[in-house]
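Appendix B, Record 12. Input sequence as logged:
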Amino acid sequence: MASMTALLAVLAAIAVSSGARELRASGLVRVYVGDTVCDPLTHGAKGDGKTLDTRAVQAAIDACAGGTVLFRAGYSFLIGPVYIRASNVHLEIEARSRIVVSDDKALWPGSGRNTAITAQSVNSISITGGGTVDGQGASWWPARKSNRPGLVYFNNVKNALIANVTFINSPNHNLELYSDSTEIAHVNIFAPSSQAPNPSHNTDAVDVHGSPFYIHDCNFTTGDDNVAVHASDVLVEDCYFGSGHGASIGSICTDAVNNVTFRRIVFDGGPHQYQASAIRIKTIQGCSGHVTNVVYDSLTMRNVQLPIDISMFYNASLFERGLPSGAFAHRHLVAGAAVQIRNITISNVTATHCKSPGSILCDKAQPCTAIHMDDVTISATPGAFKCSNAHGDAHNVSPASCLTP
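Logged structural output:
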């Protein structure tokens, strides 16, 4: 708890005073922008959801360095890729306004990263307003190997806020954020489960690659990880996770992930158990990173297939599903190496209608250590945990823990 208090103190100290208007959700991250307002409609946008408005939207963004780009209520702006190239820029998507991502494949290159909204090497960026970003992913999901676009990509960004916005039907990842000092608040992200009759694939809600990072009061119901953490000093709390692959850390190879907390989260996969996992840590065999000081606390789960899913063999599971054997060649894997997983606390968990209590599967070369389970009750059939090379302690756990001292 002390380390998380320190994280909140770091976030609370963040402020950039380069403009006149302060934007914030909890107040832990603040973004400041000037008084300039830029309207895509005045730059030639039609806003009818049919005419491609990319040039007009880009012109408004370029004209609004240090100001607000206003997407007015009642309009739908059809776009290809657009770029935020200046700091202190705010995208305000008003309620009943929509940004619609074009599904014209000609607009999206066959290689490289495709994203609808990109911010690169800038500071103090925000997206708020109550409106919707619609990825129109249905035409993309059947072609899993195509270069499907994501919705938002921040890279080398400091001080970012995304609040009160809904993202739906992303073709790929929703929010891929290599941004430090970031807050995501009151955000809804929806895409079909990867197990649904018309599934979405790889539609992670948020991929966390920056530090510190705060996510709260969100609904993430997707076809992949509800949150995927790849960085340290992360707090996720007071959220609802519907379908998806869980509150995940990883996959981890050489990363060092420390001080991560998930708390007060409800997981519900619905009657078809479309929530594959809840507590999830996935690492790649042959790597040398570490995952330490992680807390999962006060979690309620319903209709989850694996409430606890900790595995050091993520690459092996992918190979079993048909991934080419050379897919991890760029990782420079070392035979016999394994990621260190240590000091993981799982407490105050209640789970019902689950397929299995879960598993903690660790490498003999690098066992998981200091796994602490307290007040965990899981109702599942069959009713036994699976463990290998997993060491720790358990108190008031049902069914009985399989951890060894």
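Residues 12-19, 319-323 have pLDDT under 50 and may be disordered.
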